[in-house]
Predict the 3D structure of the following.
Amino acid sequence: MGVRSWFEGWPVYRQLTGTDPLGRGAAAKSDGSRALTARTDTADSMARSVCPYCAVGCGQRVFVKDGQVSQIEGDPDSPISRGRLCPKGAASKSLVTSPLRQTTVRYRRPYGTEWEDLDLDTALNMIADRVLAARDETWEDVDAEGRPLNRTLGISSLGGATLDNEENYLIKKLFTAMGALQIENQARI
Amino acid sequence: MAEAHPVGFQWVMEAKRRGAKVFHVDPRFTRTSALADSYLPIRAGTDIALLGGVVRYILDNELDFREYVVAYTNAATIVTEEYADTEDMHGLFSGFNDDNATYDQASWRYEGHSQNRTTRDSETQRETAAGLENESHGAPVGGETERDETLQHPRCVYQILKRHFARYTPEMVERVCGIPQEKFFELARAWTENSGRDRTGMLVYSVGWTQHSVGVQYIRTGAIIQLLLGNVGRPGGGVMALRGHASIQGSTDIPTLFNLLPGYLPMPHHANHPTLDEWVDSIAHPGQKGFWGNARTYGVNLLKAYWGDAATADNDYCYGYMPRMTGDHGTYQQVLDMIDGKIKGYFLLGQNPAVGSAHGRAQRLGMANLDWLVVRDLFMIESATFWQNAPEIETGEIVPERCRTEVFFLPAASHVEKEGTFTQTQRLLQWREKAVEPPGDARSELWFFYHLGRVIRERLATSTKPRDRALLDLAWDYPTHGPTVEPSAEAVLREINGYDVATGRPLASFTEMKDDGSTVGGCWIYTGVYADGVNQAARRKPGSEQSLVAPEWGWAWPANRRILYNRASADPDGNPWSERKRYIWWDADKSEWTGYDVPDFEKTKPPSYRPAHDASGVAGIAGDDPFILQGDGKGWLYAPTGVLDGPMPTHYEPVESPVRNPLYRQQANPTRKVYTHPINTLNPSPPQEHSQVFPYVFTVSRLTEHHTAGGMSRTVSPLAELQPEMFVEVSPELAALRGLSHLGWAHLVTSRAAVEAKVLVTDRVTPLRVDGRIIHQLWLPYHFGYEGLVTGDSANDLFGITLDPNVLIQESKVGTCDVRPGRRPRGQDLVDLVVDYRRRSGNLVHRYPPMVTTDVADSSSDQEA
């Protein structure tokens, strides 16, 4: 390394002569940091998303590398959030990639003391059986005066405020057709 | 707001930078207080007294925006002489019925109106959470009203309001809320000075207002102030609800709620809605004005979306398939029914009631008494492991070997592993693209419910039972894709939007819907989100390339309108109230409404339009009536019907309060929803004896670093590290009084539970002087539970269950307690401690606070002769 390149590499020189007089950008970069590449630059794809926590609706950009979420950032285009995220939103990569996430079906049989494994398809069919049985056992056709009721009060559901509109739509549609009235979510709470 | 909605708070700071004055009213000094111009500590549960003081200040000093008030609100409307006010009845309104603790609303009506063609009585409305549901569609006030635009008639709303709030003086505000008078005047002056032609002020609230036994009336009081000051339907104005979950607005619009169907149509009631005609008439109220006049169209389109080709005019579009309500089927009634063994199966979909709902012990004991429970979540939450790790294991109330509940835990897809729309707090739908496939068995709710419906329909394919027709005829053919056979969210969104049956063309507006079965639409207020076959919610034109209104980012219901009732941003003649507050106005040259937003008015109806005497529906709305969903086109300072606990807000004490109501003999909301059940024990309050056993007030709220019941934050390591422990904030004065030491342990006791927490002695909570005595308040976060990376006792275990009568939301922002140093006892000792407190408070055999206390004049604080 010659003296000239050594001197021109000195951050103070670059700060005084370059385009970064405050020394907060290019002038302050070391060779090490210059060689770094942002995960957002090397991502295979980016999805436009929305933060899953509160109802402000901050825009998120979800970067994906090799089929995995590699970074989640605030979306600067959003007129709501202008690129900002709060501590929760900023932690949402940790949320979706958390090693604590359950990724398999777990089953606790009546009077059981441990979790067991269960195949997803088996679980779906067992749940369908139980829904139909509970519905049959608690079905009410008419009230005492013969007016229609068409319902079961044997089945309850709670949840929806963290779900998509399309999901809530199907949940309500299926439960209504099933006669299950006792459908609630956080909006009641 | 800085704590719980931090990124939204940037706009408050922007406004402050431009000269706005920010006030923060809260029992606890928070990050919001730190950035506000003025902070007002308040006794939890007394906001109506504070806001009522502001109403009185406005009326006494005639600071209302008179032109707006006369033209756009019901201030001038005359009320029948049968009406009697709380002023004359110790805190009750006329029409109270002791037998069922509800009001007959007949005497509240407008002069000259025959009462209530609706068949729903107040008790049914309370049971079905129907208070003011769907604007005034539950509140028929059709026809002409008698008005005195000088506002001098003694029975006009303006004068009634003035009398009703006469006793909410600054002295009374101080006495009730603990807010010094100079602080009150600072707030009242700033609010009124910042309202009028040239300026607007905004009110922002959250569940600190809704989670009360009189929560709807908190918001009504805020709305009254904003209407009086002309702050509704104008830029920079409004009453803004900051909601707490990514799509909680969406799950209200397309409701997973027992009493509603999509677009705020009511779930049918067995007695009141036996037929399609009776159902739609109860919404439209034939002859009434406003957009609910088209209720039949909205209802038929929903039925067509549900039952497709099977729904025809001949079979009333399958209306007969609908299940019917008979009363209260809400989440708290359900939990008590679970304890009583009436419910067999329970689905939990991204919700954790073991921590997040009031009375955690009741929640957990309910879940332990089911046949089966399905939990769909990202993480192993408390509501899935109650049979293993609940506090009731330690007390022996749940024994795994004797707990029969079969539990299915199904992993859910996260927000980046599925596509679909969230509706955020300003009614804005934003489409999320899918980034990656969900891991392992994780699936979306769309997948789960589509396939559950598919399997159930296959099982029933040969059924001949009439009850199964609704499932077999259901329109359930959604296209699927990918290796997991995921249904198409976009196809569901298209159905929600609606389309023409013959051509398949997506509808552009709900005004294109027909009531003859030729169009389909799953949620009328969302029609337009798929206009032109384009997913409008996916629009992402950068904010920097648009106007401040940013109409091309996402899509807001209804009709991509960003401010509701924005006709009120122009004067009655259609001109902007001022240049500074120009937003929507009448363009006389083009004969249409125009402006920066989508006008919330028929586009070509001129300001001069006056309806014919017998006009109804949309045609009945005059050219200067901005509140187009109201039966009289007016903003309601006074609700002549529909609000179950009174036509105007009244300060009642929380159900659990250490204080006798200083304003009236009536102590608490006389129409509140009470559950008498052995598990639902309540602390005594004046005028009952022994309230001093629970001398302190406690309240709960969120931390920035955690989310609700912790299922999405105590499981995430950066957030768990930032807020690792359950704690309670106490003032130095209370710490000294009760021997609590900073960073030591304390436990709080109510007649439901004892909960331990680390002590944070801080000036952020301050003792208040209330009605001549010192009231200590404690604050806790409610995020903690027994699963996750960081654990702790759940604050919601402390609460009992008492609900607001209009919406059946629980009072979980205020209660009374005792606090003691040290950790709580374990096992049987814990049960004994709580039982001992109940014994000392005279509540070993269940006693509930009396609904009506107007005959008790024992209090020195009683203001009435």
About this structure: Chain A is about 35% helix and 25% strand. Residues 5 and 189 of chain A are 66 Å apart (CA to CA).
